[in-house]
Fold this protein.
Amino acid sequence: MKLPVIRHFQKGATKEQLETTLEVLEHFTEHRSVTDEEMDVVGELITNICGAIEVHNNVENGMSGVEAANAFAQKVMGSIDA
């Protein structure tokens, strides 16, 4: 997870665009010829896109972009500590 990448995705794409991209990447990972290295890269992209979607949701619910990104980061850090 890279918060600057998440913010970049959130600012540069709509929630719908991110969801479509997520579907494509998930479909890509199901192909038998995907290498471990490609899977690692796609996994990182999927993580960041999911974060951007969550930030979008928080902004839609009234948070500022910065608050939404920080809330997401705290949620992730909290799950790592648990």
